[in-house]
Each structure stands twice: as structure tokens, then as C-alpha cells.
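cron nightly-structures :: item 1 of 1
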Amino acid sequence: MLNWLQAHAATILVAALLLAAVVLAVVKIIKDKKSGKCSCGGQCSGCAMSGQCHVAEHPDKESKHL
């Protein structure tokens, strides 16, 4: 078992770093979405999906990104 870990230490380290980067990215996306931030860059005037990604919470409030 120890020999296998020593032989694959670099692969395990790279995989752990990649997994950590993915987890941090997902956490950031979820945090931004909960705070109402837009992940698309906010240039809605030229976006083909501009009518699809905004919803009005209340009729008297501004629409906000999902």
C-alpha cells in the first residue's frame, strides 16, 4: 500500500488540487447566485438569452439575475 502511494503521489496531489479548485468555484457560484449577482457578465443588450435569464420578483421591483 505504501509503495502504491509513493508511486502515485504526484497524481494524487494534482487530483486533490483540481478537486479543491472545482469545489471553490462551485462555492463561489452558489454564493454569488444567493447574493443576486449575475455570472454572465451583465451585457444583456446584446445577449440572445436576455429575456430568459431575468425574472421579476414583484411587479413593483426591478428584475434581477437568477
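cron nightly-structures :: done
Strands lie at 54-56, 63-65.
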